[in-house]
Amino acid sequence: MSDRAILFLFSIVVVIGSLAAAGWLLATGQAGTVDGLFLLLTCLLAAFAFGLYLVFMIRRALEPAPAPAAHTAKAGAAAGAKAPAQSKPAPAAQA
Known about the structure:
mainly alpha, about 65% helix, elongated
């Protein structure tokens, strides 16, 4: 499995977990306290951040692939030519 697939699945798990925790806080009434409110906002922020990443990944996957550059006969002939010899660096001056 590629690293992009693992990141995609991890992002889905985080978004679902964050939304589930936010729903649990609301269902149990803990979101009414100051600590619960901050925890609710943290859960929603994490879900939003990972959701944006998912949208970015999906849009990037739906983009058409760039067309490969066409090779011409000149480019092939120039590539086959012998490359000039590289010059060696000058020796360091001795003190």
